[in-house]
Write a structure and sequence with these properties.
CATH topology of the largest domain: D-Maltodextrin-Binding Protein, domain 2
Distance between the termini: 37 Å
Number of domains: 2
CATH class of the largest domain: Alpha Beta
Structural class: alpha/beta
Strand content: 15-25%
Number of strands: 9
CATH architecture of the largest domain: 3-Layer(aba) Sandwich
Low-confidence stretches: 1-34
Mean pLDDT: 91
Radius of gyration: 21 Å
CATH superfamily of the largest domain: Periplasmic binding protein-like II
Number of helices: 14
Shape: globular
Length: 378
Amino acid sequence: MSSFLNRRRILTTGAGAVLGLGAAAAQATASPSAPRNASGPEETRTLDELHQAALAEDGKLVIYAGGDTPTQQDRLKAAFTRRFPGIDMTLIVDYSKYHDVRVDNQLATGSLVPDVVQLQTLHDFPRWKEQGRLLPYKPAGFSKLHHRFRDPQGAWVAGAVIGFSFMYGLAAVGSDAPRTPLDLVDPKWKGKIASSYPHDDDAVLFLYKLYAERYGWDWVARLAAQDVWFARGSNSPEDALNGGQAAIGVGGAGSLTASASEPVQWAVADGHPFMAWGQRLAVLRQAKNPTAAKLYLNWVLSAQRQQAAFNGWSVRTDVTPAGGLKPIWKYPNAHLDGFPRFMADRAEVERWKQTFALYIGEVKGDPTPGWLGLHPGA
């Protein structure tokens, strides 16, 4: 994520109708005998103690994680299984908008697969909490999480901060790097921009919404006239830059702590919008492996893991961001509160989706994780 783009200076200021009656029936029977909002103390067991308890339970763990490609979470899986040998982790990556309705359908049909959901669809977690679908649980360090990144009763926590903005390839732009999103509509970049579809991914959609509100619909029209290469998956802009297919990317993640010599530079301009959110995690109340699920949450939220966040930002208030960054909640142009509100208003989301479709056309292409069906990981 010229002197304008120096990382130290840039940031110094500044569900589904298809379920039909099955879903209604599922909601009616969703809440077991335990109170929906039951809350207990923070976890006191160590990671090693939880590890042994998880091995004694069954030694298995299934996670449905939001993402763009089947291998996107392979490094996380490798780190977890290396730290906790003997745990058989199955980690399934798919677009969050498919995982959430997949879980709804599994609950409606009595065929739940995952123990943990780790998704971008922030609006699902309050709904699942209200339905009694989530297991209230406070991992160790829960009180150190920023209040935006935890449910008060522990129904869900956020495990990582993710930010979306624009980026550029150093070799492709040379000394003429775009300074702000306003520069993206300069005619010199025509045919040289790659973007993930804003009406295919709600986080990219929110980023484009911020751009439209800040720069106006004329900016959107001018961007649409730039012969932008649109593709599915928020990985696609960086992939296009790395492959030499584009000079600029829009709607993907990155880090402002990366070396200035990195071939792809993720950019945030002071005073101009970008967006960030906390990717939410929860243990499902009907999880087959609840202890392994708790182990995973404790590990993800541990100070050691949070200090190693790829973009330098942590969900914990007691972890100093890397690279001289401030905590993400101190950047008003990250719109940390705006994205959860946006996600909760599904009618507004649909209006923005269809409006952008008018400007850039319908979404095309197969989903980048593939078609995974109803019960992946079973």
